[in-house]
């Protein structure tokens, strides 16, 4: 049994489906809105109501909603899709659902079919014609072809086709000729089945659309096919067709409030402001400052591996990679274990040297990032122990890893990662300190001091959030800048990278994060009176060095916005703006310094009229490579 982090208990497109006694449309449209964070360049639905009605539209789910306002939206079986384009530009034609040549089958698909081109070619020679550029349309034609030529039932045709395709998928199919049937399957892309108490079944890419209807869910495993017919669900293995006996029904304990905006204008701001609580939740029940003890059920069984580890390799992407960089400093600083931090996408394709003495830590908010999953598979095949750090319960990473820890930050809906990052860093700090203790590299009194300081972080984050009004002023001042530079050293270097990433992804301003001292090896040439330079310049080991770096920027007329420790006077005299954060240990500065940087990007993006929750070209979780 895979680890699932020894625990009770989340791209690309979003998919939903319903089969039951009521109209499917309300569930489908609301579900697509909940899943819009996964992709939002087009949306569509298919409904069975004697005929197969397919409606699809480029743009947001709200545009689809307007489009169908005067259409027949009745039907007790239906599927819906919100898309993040992989094959084919985002337009009405390429939107899902796609239909078979004979018009009887409709499919929605999250993932990518890598060998679609050769299948398409073969189908074209057989007379198939295609009305989109997608791999998904090829898949449904392929299924149809098998059904008709092998003269098998639809379910069997789906299974046979899936055995031929290369790639990742979560799919759902309905058929005009089978008004009581919905077929869903997954490999590599997530899929949850909700079990209603009135014989209805729901499917979705994650549990958020389902919880208003039922709390009983089944997470499909990779290579499983769910056949829902006449109020019965049967799950089978795609390879050998074996029926799964007594599939495990989980009880969801997500609250509806946790997936709604709760009075905030958008999810990103809500999630920024949730951080005092999410950081607390990520440590809850794990540390006891009084006696300096620590527990993490997912770690216990593998502590000896960490104690004896020759090396830790961290694999992740984007913001999670930045959390991994903080972890490098933490593990080397405290536990004295050498650490390498790898982009999962690079690691997976270069023949890395990994062995049984290595521990690989995979960090991911969604638990579904394709490159991170592939990096895990590769490291596993080379004998390394894999430890996952993940936010979404029931996602792929907890299933694939030997052990791990959830971050408990709660659902993160805004595409730009905020609270997931600080929760990841908190959990990694806990683990690094604990391993340092196990390896005898930290004195008990120091450990207690660090654990005690960690417990103050939620209230210090609250204090850091109080700079919001000042940050709005700074944002007004710099919102039209074309470029930004972010500088930091030591623990603050990953913070600089994260600050720059946040700004680019939601405001579309070009930004670079750099180690402050490295600036003079190139980027200093960019500095002039138009360049805002955000410097993380908190007290600590590197303070004086960063002060010198600020002087270098000032000498070239760069505009300094500095994140400083409360009460700093030296930098105040040098910078155009200073944002103060509470004092803390050097190693915990990332947890506080990130907060004003999130707010700065947020306000600049809002002032530039950008959609912060759904920035262009991005998806919350990248389930294709
Ligand atoms: C940035 C962001 C992305 C993700 C990256 C990894 O705000 O959200 O860079 O951090 O796509 O995603 P996960 O953590 O889900 O593996």
Layout of strands and helices, then pairs:
Blueprint: E1 14-19, H1 25-34, E2 42-49, E3 51-58, H2 61-68, E4 77-83, E5 98-99, E6 105-113, H3 116-125, H4 135-149, H5 154-164, E7 167-175, E8 178-187, E9 192-195, E10 201-204, E11 216-219, E12 224-229, E13 232-237, E14 250-251, H6 267-273, H7 275-283, E15 287-288, E16 293-294, H8 297-300, H9 303-308, E17 311-316, H10 318-335, E18 339-343, H11 344-347, E19 358-364, H12 370-381, E20 385-390, H13 396-400, E21 403-406, H14 419-438, H15 444-465, H16 468-478, E22 483-488, H17 492-507, E23 510-515, E24 532-536, H18 543-555, E25 559-565, E26 577-581, H19 589-607
Helix pairs in contact: 3-4, 4-5, 7-14, 7-15, 10-14, 10-17, 14-15, 15-19, 16-19, 17-19
The structure holds fructose -6-phosphate (F6R).
Residues 317-320, 364-366, 369, 372, 416-417, 501, 505, 621-622 line the site of fructose -6-phosphate (F6R).
Give an overview of the whole structure:
This protein is of the alpha/beta class. The chain folds into 3 domains: 14-110 and 167-258, 4-Layer Sandwich (Glutamine Phosphoribosylpyrophosphate, subunit 1, domain 1), CATH 3.60.20.10; 264-463, Rossmann fold (3-Layer(aba) Sandwich), CATH 3.40.50.10490; 466-625, 3-Layer(aba) Sandwich (Rossmann fold), CATH 3.40.50.10490. It contains 19 helices and 26 strands. The strands form 5 sheets. Strands 3-2-4-1-10-9-11-14 form an 8-stranded antiparallel sheet, covered by helices on one side. A 6-stranded antiparallel sheet has the order 5-6-7-8-12-13. The longest helix has 22 residues, at 444-465. The chain is globular and about 80 Å long. Residues 6-11 have low confidence and may be disordered. The structure holds fructose -6-phosphate. Fructose -6-phosphate (F6R) binds at residues 317-320, 364-366, 369, 372, 416-417, 501, 505, 621-622. Residues 317-320, 364-366, 369, 372, 416-417, 501, 505, 621-622 line the site of fructose -6-phosphate.
């Amino acid at each position: 049994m895979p680890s699932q982090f020894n625990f009770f208990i989340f791209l690309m497109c979003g998919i939903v489906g319903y089969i039951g006694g009521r109209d499917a449309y309300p569930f489908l449209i609301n579900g697509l809105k909940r899943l819009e964070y996964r992709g939002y360049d087009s949306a569509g639905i298919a409904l069975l109501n004697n005929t197969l009605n397919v409606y699809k539209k480029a743009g947001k789910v709200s545009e689809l909603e307007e489009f169908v306002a005067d259409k027949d939206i009745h039907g007790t079986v239906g599927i819906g899709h919100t898309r993040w384009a992989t094959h084919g530009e985002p337009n009405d034609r390429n939107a899902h659902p796609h239909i078979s040549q004979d018009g009887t089958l409709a499919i929605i698909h999250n993932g990518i079919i890598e060998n679609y081109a050769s299948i398409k070619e073969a189908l074209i020679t057989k007379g198939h014609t295609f009305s989109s550029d997608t791999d998904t349309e090829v898949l449904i034609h392929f299924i149809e072809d098998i059904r008709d030529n092998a003269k098998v039932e639809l379910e069997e045709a789906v299974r046979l086709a899936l055995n031929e395709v290369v790639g990742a998928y979560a799919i759902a199919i309905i058929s005009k000729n089978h008004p009581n049937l919905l077929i869903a399957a997954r490999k590599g892309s997530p899929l949850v089945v909700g079990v209603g108490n009135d014989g209805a079944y729901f499917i979705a890419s994650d549990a958020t659309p389902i919880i208003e209807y039922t709390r009983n869910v089944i997470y499909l495993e990779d290579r499983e096919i769910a056949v829902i017919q006449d109020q019965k669900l049967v799950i089978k293995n795609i390879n050998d067709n074996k029926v799964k006996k007594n599939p495990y029904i989980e009880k969801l304990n997500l609250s509806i409030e946790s997936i709604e905006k709760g009075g905030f204008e958008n999810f990103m701001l809500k999630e920024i402001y949730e951080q005092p609580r999410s950081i607390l939740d990520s440590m809850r029940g794990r540390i006891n400052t009084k006696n300096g003890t620590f527990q993490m059920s997912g770690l216990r069984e593998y502590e000896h591996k960490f104690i004896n580890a020759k090396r830790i390799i961290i694999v992740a992407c984007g913001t999670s990679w930045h959390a991994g960089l903080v972890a490098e400093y933490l593990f080397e600083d405290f536990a004295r274990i050498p650490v390498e931090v790898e982009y999962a996408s690079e690691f997976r394709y270069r023949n890395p040297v990994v062995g049984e003495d290595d521990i690989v830590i995979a960090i991911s908010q969604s638990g579904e990032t394709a490159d991170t999953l592939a990096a895990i598979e590769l490291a596993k095949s080379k004998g390394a122990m894999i430890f996952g750090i993940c936010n979404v319960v029931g996602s792929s990473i907890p299933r694939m890893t030997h052990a791990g820890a959830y971050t408990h930050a709660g659902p993160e809906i805004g595409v730009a990662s905020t609270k997931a990052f600080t929760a990841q860093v908190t959990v990694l700090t806990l683990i690094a300190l604990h391993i340092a203790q196990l390896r005898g590299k930290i004195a008990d009194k120091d450990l207690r001091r660090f654990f005690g300081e960690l417990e103050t972080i939620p209230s210090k984050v609250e204090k850091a959030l109080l700079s919001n009004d000042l940050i709005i002023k700074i944002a007004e001042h710099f919102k039209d800048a074309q470029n930004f530079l972010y500088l930091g050293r030591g623990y603050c270097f990953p913070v600089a990278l994260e600050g720059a990433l946040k700004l680019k992804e939601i405001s579309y301003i070009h930004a670079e994060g750099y180690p402050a001292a490295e600036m003079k090896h190139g980027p200093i040439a960019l500095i002039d009176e138009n360049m805002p330079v955000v410097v993380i310049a908190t007290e600590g080991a590197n303070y004086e060095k960063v002060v010198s770096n600020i002087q270098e920027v000032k000498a070239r007329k760069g505009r300094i916005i500095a994140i400083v420790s409360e009460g700093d006077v030296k930098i105040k005299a040098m910078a155009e703006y200073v944002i103060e954060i509470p004092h803390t240990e050097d190693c915990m500065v990332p947890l506080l310094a990130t907060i004003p940087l999130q707010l700065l990007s947020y306000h600049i993006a809002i002032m530039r009229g950008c959609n912060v929750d759904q920035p262009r070209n991005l998806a919350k979780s990248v389930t294709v490579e």
